[in-house]
Design goal:
By secondary structure, this protein is an alpha/beta fold. It is 42% helix and 14% strand. It has a seven-stranded mixed beta sheet, sandwiched between helices. β2 (144-149), α8 (156-168) and β3 form a beta-alpha-beta unit. The chain is globular, with a radius of gyration of 27 Å. It starts with 5 loop residues before the first helix and ends in a 9-residue tail after the last helix. The model has no long low-confidence stretch (mean pLDDT 94).
Length: 639
């Protein structure tokens, strides 16, 4: 179904690529780009970023001796070309599909995937570690290369790594893939700086000199160091007029160069191979390169879903009834409503304005909504700072990315008992992005923090009311987690209602067994209970709403009335809500039989949410089975 071009057909590894002449690289890039378009348009996935790195990918594998040389992609959403060139061309149509290859580099998938990624800003640290290992192991020929975007380089870890690498002076190359975009337009002072370097006349003047000298390096061989010295002196004299951030960190800075000129890239990379120490090559690319619509609306085409490649029309699954709003959009609209009522409210996102829908507030009240860049730690402490002054920050961070900011949540917010509202989007299995993106741990990691309120709505209406209640709570950090996707329609005119902190509710009556659920996954339990009722099994459903504080009076009622209980959560079973309930039982001497359903203690791979809920054993059908294992179906009724 997907036919690679004649060159691509012959490339089963970078070694095959290296057999072609430099004259053929442009054609190879064209075929690679077309193959990505062909497959992503039908199968979905990240799009613009990989189109932008086609030439860079080809040049890197052409010049470096991969997989011996260690190529580390940051985030990894731009590495589709890399996957296709490294033996995964024919399985690429299974990208991100249950049982198929991962959408991100993954060590166990290929020797060419040197480091598992998904979260941003790790590549320089990892490549520096690899370079240090090569030196300690006495292998001077093994190179380490990090490819990092202008968005990812704004993350704190990237700065920490640059600082350390400049100091250690290990032999490594950082390729800065600068397309002026994160998922949304990149933000921050560094972005301005990169633009300044790119357009600076002084720099461009010196740059020409530098390249002239650089071209000679390969011919000079052992004299390369002298040449490099000259280059550095050239740059340094310019630095008297304009300093270079990377040079200040003791990196040798080269560029900027056109990241879509594959031959130029190959030439430059080949030269840089011979220059010792830490180097940075600044490459300018266009996100979405080669697909006009993706170049024009780079945020939309970051991961557009399935589309008609000829017309560019994005294909949405046909829906008979109107769709309920996504949780993220309910967050976005509700925050604006609340902020209109309460001047203290501000919004914060680390680089996910369209992902979490804070962009709605950024548009409506730009002075009170902040995209702070890819820096979850800073986002939390920035929020904490505002809270000390009486503002009420709603800090929205995907559950998985909040892992980055755990110390800030504890040290800067919880210990000081500051009123920051954390909205954790993508709580539970994330779907096709896989293990790096599942919001698996937040219930467990939040509930052990003193002062923290840990809440999860079962539907969008509850999300609105929880946000309202959280804003009014006025003391203590308050976290609200919700999943990707949607649940029920929202009546936007309905007045907000206070949800009392630490109070759960009974959703369904029943006598045979009790299910206690938290959050959206309770809807699967509700479906299961409905189906079981047809088989004369009556299941009661309790929506706990808060994992902290626990609704102890509700739990006493449950355990005084039921000797069979199933807990259901879309999060890790160890340490999660089910564990909290076992602790409650132990503390109070209850001995009911309990089955805990949740993500098991292993890495859950990618697939659709439904597929993964089923695999983990808490979709409606699995919940039904678990109930029947405790309450046999009454005779005369077939299951
Ligand atoms: C820690 C973390 N926060 C947020 C994200 C979500 N995210 C994925 S890609 C991306 C933008 C990366 O921008 P850049 O590095 O410039 O790469 P580009 O997509 O522009 O090629 C973001 C914010 C992430 N992967 N990791």
């Amino acid at each position: 179904m997907f036919e690679p071009g004649p060159y691509l057909k012959q490339i089963n590894s970078p070694n095959d690529l290296r057999q072609f002449s430099t004259d053929e690289l442009v054609a190879i890039c064209d075929e690679l780009r077309q193959y990505i378009i062909d497959i992503v348009s039908v199968k979905g996935g990240h799009f613009g970023a990989s189109l932008g790195t086609v030439e860079l990918t080809v040049a890197l594998h052409y010049i470096f001796n991969t997989p011996k040389d260690q190529l580390v992609w940051d985030v990894g959403h731009q590495a589709y070309g890399h996957k296709i060139l490294t033996g995964r061309r024919d399985v690429f149509p299974t990208n991100r599909i249950y049982g198929g290859i991962s959408g991100f580099p993954k060590r166990k998938e290929s020797d060419y995937d040197t480091f598992g990624v998904g979260h941003s800003s790790t590549s320089i640290s990892a490549a520096l570690g690899m370079a240090t290992a090569a030196r300690l192991q006495g292998d001077k020929s093994r190179k380490s290369i990090a490819v990092i975007g202008d968005g990812a380089i704004t993350g704190g870890m990237a700065f920490e790594a640059l600082n350390n690498a400049g100091w250690l002076q290990e032999d490594m190359l950082v390729v800065l893939n600068d397309n002026c975009m994160s998922i949304d337009p990149n933000v921050g002072a560094l972005k301005e700086y990169l633009t300044d370097i790119t357009t600076s006349h002084t720099y461009n003047k010196v740059k020409d000199e530098v390249w002239k000298l650089l071209g000679k390096i390969s011919k000079f061989g052992p004299d390369a160091r002298t040449i490099v010295q000259k280059i550095e002196n050239g740059i340094k004299s310019t630095l008297l007029q304009q300093s270079n951030l990377f040079e200040s960190l003791k990196f040798r800075y080269f560029g900027p160069i056109d990241g879509h000129d594959v031959n130029r890239l190959a030439e430059v990379l080949s030269d840089l191979k011979n220059i010792p120490g830490p180097k940075i090559l600044h490459v300018l690319t266009v996100k979405g390169k080669g697909y006009k619509l993706a170049e024009e609306d780079q945020t939309l085409w970051h991961a557009p879903g399935v589309f008609d490649k000829l017309t560019g029309q994005i294909i949405k699954p046909e829906k008979k009834a109107p769709e309920p709003p996504k949780y993220q959009d309910v967050f976005g609209h509700t925050l604006v409503e609340l902020a209109e009522l309460d001047k203290r409210i501000v919004g914060v996102t680390p680089a996910m304005p369209s992902g979490c829908s804070l962009n709605i507030m950024m548009k409506a009240m730009p002075e009170r909504a902040f995209d702070v860049g890819i820096c979850e730690q800073h986002a939390v402490t920035f929020s904490a700072g505002m809270a000390t002054q009486g503002l009420v920050p709603f800090c929205n961070i995907y559950s998985t990315f909040m892992q980055r900011a755990y110390d800030q949540v504890v040290h800067d917010v919880a210990i000081q008992n500051l009123h920051v509202v954390f909205c954790l989007d993508r709580g539970g299995v994330a779907g096709a992005d896989g293990p790096t993106h599942h919001g698996a741990y937040d219930i467990a990691y939040m509930r052990c923090i003193p002062n923290m309120i840990v809440a999860a709505p079962m539907n969008e209406e509850e999300l609105r009311n929880m946000m309202y209640s959280a804003a009014l709570h006025n003391s203590a950090p308050y976290s609200i987690r919700y999943p990707r996707g949607n649940g029920v329609m929202v009546d936007w005119k309905k007045p907000f209602q206070i949800i009392e902190t630490g109070k759960g509710r009974q959703v369904r009556k029943g006598k045979d067994l009790a299910i206690i659920s938290i959050g959206h996954i309770g809807n699967e339990a509700l479906i299961a209970a409905g189906n079981l009722s047809k088989q004369n099994i009556e299941v009661a459903l309790f929506d706990l709403r808060f994992v902290k504080p626990l609704d102890e009076s509700l739990l006493h009622i449950v355990f005084q009335n039921f000797d069979k209980v199933i807990t259901v959560e879309d999060g890790c079973v160890q340490g999660g809500m089910g564990s909290a309930i076992l602790e409650f039982m132990a503390d109070n001497g209850y001995t009911s039989r309990v089955i805990r359903l949740g993500m098991p203690d292993k890495i859950i791979e990618h697939g659709t949410q439904q597929e993964l809920w089923a695999e983990c054993g808490y979709d409606a059908a699995s919940i039904q089975k678990a109930v029947v294992s405790l309450v046999p179906v009454p005779v005369n009724v077939s299951y």
